[in-house]
Design goal:
Structural class: alpha/beta
Strand order of the largest sheet: 7-6-5-4-3-2-1-8
Shape: globular
Number of helices: 12
Largest sheet: 8 strands, parallel
Length: 401
């Protein structure tokens, strides 16, 4: 979240190619334990905000839906709780406490429920004096600024696996210091806690967040997304050009998924999910899984597209064309194949052609072209010709025949 006065609004959107990058910064112990690939899971904010329905019963129900809907089998791992989980004030010793009405059983018990289902549990805080959701006099719930060691120890004692650390009410304290202090505090607990920086891209975190001494696993590159095509497109364009800064275990984060929330068409949601996947972005479901519609669930469960996001080579797709509303993004895969996305951002249908050379292939060779949404195979010279409706995407995996 961004502005404490505007947490009900969220901004921005975007798409991708790739040249092979070296592994970059060596994986830390936390990277290895949590897995170096982009995080997959759920976050409640986009669907519930701070409404009364956000409580421990809802989160337990979401964890159960991971199993019954097939999300766990598809690779979704984290059940993440966002803002409004905490009590309004710290206790007499300065420790964070859960809101007794929303979470009467406590956070440790909720984390245990999630863990019992073979999933991981995430929590939220802000690198400021208070979080982003305003309660009284524009002040939110207690933030972590100045309490990093105490809060990290609390999170570890509750068996938290993931921390989303926001940027509100930061008193203009240097961002490098604020996020480094929490990174060090998390490491000092000796518990593996995935550190997801939510700095909104204000201080170009892609230049420093993934490197020592911070070594965060992901960092937000943009403002908050909203459930509109314009927002998704804007964020895509901001994030896709940052491919060279991502590496195995350290990811650009263009914010959570809006798939299923109702503000875009299924065609647009398919583009949204494909773009995030080829950009090796976190795949955090932002819709209420208790009421998700079958078409939205089908998009989120496309294992062939998920495999592009989760490819162990650890490369973000690179945009090789951005012209006349057509984007072409290429991502090299560990098995030697290439994932290719062809995206039409315009409001009209377009016939798009992509030469094999543009993808980085030899036109004289023969290739198998797998359509990741139609789930069909074709043979050819590696070139692509496709009719794309407005706002639509085509996504392929191309390998030697």
């Amino acid at each position: 979240m961004m502005n404490p006065r505007a947490t009900w609004l969220r901004t921005a959107a975007s798409f991708a190619f790739v040249s092979v990058l070296s592994a970059g910064v060596a994986a830390t112990g936390a990277d290895k334990a949590n897995g170096p690939l982009p995080q997959m899971g759920f976050n409640n904010w986009n669907s519930t905000h701070c409404r009364d329905e956000f409580n421990e019963a809802m989160i337990r129900g979401i964890a159960d839906k991971f199993i019954s809907l097939g999300l766990k089998d598809a690779g979704y791992t984290y059940v993440n709780v966002d803002d409004c989980w905490a009590n309004w004030q710290r206790d007499k010793d300065g420790a964070l406490q859960p809101n007794p009405k929303r979470f009467p059983s406590g956070i440790k018990a909720l984390a245990a429920y999630v863990h019992e289902r073979g999933l991981k549990f995430g929590l939220y805080s802000s690198a400021g004096t208070s979080t982003c959701e305003p309660l009284q006099e524009n002040r939110g719930f207690p933030g972590g600024l100045g309490h990093e060691k105490q809060d990290a120890a609390t999170f570890a004692s509750w068996d938290v696996d993931y921390l989303k650390y926001d940027n509100c009410n930061n008193n203009k304290v240097d961002a490098h210091k604020r996020y480094l202090d929490m990174a060090n505090a998390l490491r000092a607990t000796h518990r593996s806690i995935f550190f997801s920086m939510c700095e909104w891209g204000e201080n170009k975190p892609w230049l420093w967040a993934g490197k020592p001494p911070v070594s965060a696993q992901s960092w937000r590159t943009t403002g908050d997304i909203t459930d509109t095509y314009a927002s998704m497109l804007k964020i895509f364009k901001q994030n896709v050009v940052l491919d060279k800064y991502a590496s195995l275990g350290h990811w650009n984060d263009p914010d959570m998924l809006e798939v299923g929330n109702g503000g875009m068409t299924d065609v647009e949601y398919q583009s949204h999910f494909s773009l995030w996947s080829i950009m090796a972005a976190p795949l955090l479901v932002g819709t209420d899984l208790r009421t998700i519609k079958p078409d939205a669930l089908k998009i989120l469960l496309n294992k062939e597209v998920i495999a592009v996001d989760q490819d162990p080579l650890g490369v973000q797709g690179k945009q090789v064309r951005d012209a006349k509303g057509i984007h072409v993004i290429v991502k090299p895969m560990k098995d030697g194949s290439r994932a290719v996305a062809v995206f039409n951002e315009t409001d009209a249908a377009v016939d798009a052609s992509v030469a094999a050379s543009e993808i980085g292939l030899k036109a004289t060779a023969k290739y198998k072209v797998r359509d990741l949404w139609q789930h069909t195979d074709a043979s050819g010279d590696g070139s692509i010709k496709v009719n794309l409706p407005a706002h639509a995407i085509a996504m392929y995996r191309i390998s030697h025949d």
